[in-house]
Amino acid sequence: MQVSSLNEVKIYSLSAGRSLPEWLSDRKKRALQKKDVDIRRRIELIQDFEMPTVSTKIKVSRDGQYIMAVGTYKPRVRCFDTYQLSQKFERCLDSEVVTFEILSDDYSKIVFLQCGRFVEFHSQHGHYYKTRIPKFGRDFSYHYPSCDLYFVGASSEVYRLNLEQGRFLNSLQTEASESNVCDINPVHFLFALGTAEGKVECWDPRTRNRVGLLDCALSSVTADTEIEGLPSISALKFDGALNVAVGTSTGQVLLYDLRSSNPLIVKDHHYGLPIKSIQFQHQLDLIISADSRIIKMWNKDTGKIFTSMEPEHDINDVCLYPNSGMLMTANEAPKMNIYYIPVLGPAPKWCSFLDNLTEELEENPESTVYDDYKFVTRKDLENLGLAHLIGSSLLRAYMHGFFMDIRLYHKAKMMANPFAYEEYRREKIRQKIEETRAQRVQLKKLPKVNKELALKLIEEEGEEQQFSKKRKQKNLPSLLKDDRFKVMFENPDFQVDEQSEEFRLLNPLVSKISEKRKRKLKILEELEAQGQEEEEEPEGKASDAESSESSDDEKAWVEEVRKQRKLLRQEEKLKRQERLKEDQQTLLKPQFFEIKEGEEFRSFKDSAKKQKLMKKTLEDRLKLEEKLGTLNVSDTTVGSKQATFKLKKSEQQRKQQEAEKLHRQERKTLRRSASHLKSRRGRGRLFH
Fold this sequence. Notes:
Blueprint: E1 2-6, E2 9-13, H1 26-35, H2 37-41, E3 54-60, E4 66-72, E5 76-81, E6 86-92, E7 97-102, E8 110-114, E9 118-122, E10 127-132, E11 137-143, E12 148-153, E13 157-162, E14 167-173, E15 179-184, E16 191-195, E17 199-204, E18 209-215, H3 216-219, E19 233-239, E20 243-248, E21 252-257, E22 263-268, E23 277-281, E24 286-290, E25 295-299, E26 305-309, E27 315-320, E28 326-331, E29 337-340, H4 353-363, E30 373-376, H5 378-384, E31 395-398, E32 401-405, H6 406-416, H7 420-438, H8 451-471, H9 501-506, H10 510-530, H11 543-585, H12 605-615, H13 618-628, E33 631-635, E34 641-645, H14 651-687
Helix pairs in contact: 8-10
Domain NUC153: 482-508
Pfam families: Beta-prop_NOL10_N, NOL10_2nd, NUC153
Organism: Leiothrix lutea
């Protein structure tokens, strides 16, 4: 699929790419698709959307489901089903088709005007009827209210064939010697025909009288146009009830209001070729006119160019798919072109995936049509000595210059400028010098906070880039450029404390590494102050010395760890001594502690006992509790051990139990005293 752009309008050519021959087997087609990249990447929107040699006319049915095309050789018609994205049927004909018309909403009623004066009717099953007109026909139109076919051609008469009665009616007599095209207005059914003398005659089918005449040949001649010969009418198209567009054989398009004999606007294609087709695009108020070389889209009010397309082969017919941005062309080649212009409208519903495809292509732009061409002006051609090629097929006119093949441009430039090699050599030398300059020490703006950490990250990033270039891997993102870690190099609270114990133990070789970085920091600060560049390495050592130093680092690792630990122990001893001195100097003062509510102070011995008990093993604690009576260990019948614990009671429960015990003892004493008194009284009575 090729993408071209003119006036910022993207045009997607869906039929670009190589096509495979029909006689190839499926196996060979699959093998070619595996080998050839161009065949694999092509988009085949409708399967086998082509003709054997040439396609002449293309139309879409009113329901939008079927696309019909005629061509040669042999003369045939092909119908494509858009719902199935493939060909529905193919019918061969006796002679070439000049034009055809689809009378029904689908493909069930078709009329073909053939070059041998034949008119052939086809129904859904195939050929239905064939008749002949007196003169060679060039175009025809269908009048729906009366079921009449109007044929124009190499005669001054317009032949009428009534399909309801099945017979020819009285023909219409015109003033023209020959007629080329005709059309019927879809609103009020006015019949118009374009003559070889450059005039448009309008007839009323109800009265069979001429009601108007437009002299388009005279109106097409303006101050800017150059015309050779008398322009005849080659294309005719109605738009609504009042507007009609007329195309001439000299390449002009005239837009008329039926109420006026003067054209509203005259548009020249500047190629001098007959206009083949005219279409209206109502969403953007555009007219799509085409000759055999170019398709132009322009505003019908101002005449300003919207965009244009130049296919490789000559154009025979243009068909705009209704209510969409899809355009199809029949041309002098086997393949029929399909273009998709998203600005004109959405993709048809049967190929809605085109919208997603074009969005992906816009995100990942690929090469355009003109990558193999070089744009040159007239002055460039004169400098190259190629001014004599203007007007030939080697140059394609475009805007204020020309497009030419890039290979031809390079050959001509080599011949015109023999010293181009010297310029190339100087450019290469300059590039080498720039590369060596880039390898020198470059001034780096380090952050205010954590300068050594930033320098370490920059060095590691350079090493990773070299490693990734060798391994062809992607570079990882840098912490200095990451917004999430930006505060670490701006806020002083995040400054790394290199004197802390954790940092020194985790980085035993930090002293040597930090010395190197401090040297580099000093060099960078000096360079910033002086504004000069040093060509030497920041460390001032050769690469061999660095490699030997890296090998010694492994041996010195243990020694550095031991030194750091000795230093840390000495620092801890000094700190302890300082604390002892401070304690001796400070006077001891009595401290008072408050006991919580509901608790009684016994002594400090209980807490000491608890601490001793917690230090003992589980076995010792179990033996002690067994002696105290809080634990009972016994064997079970199964052979396992069973332990029964007596939970210690709280202080409140213990007080309550003691009060109950005292109360019980008091009651016992009272009972004993009472029983003693009773016994003494009984004895006294006996003595009396």
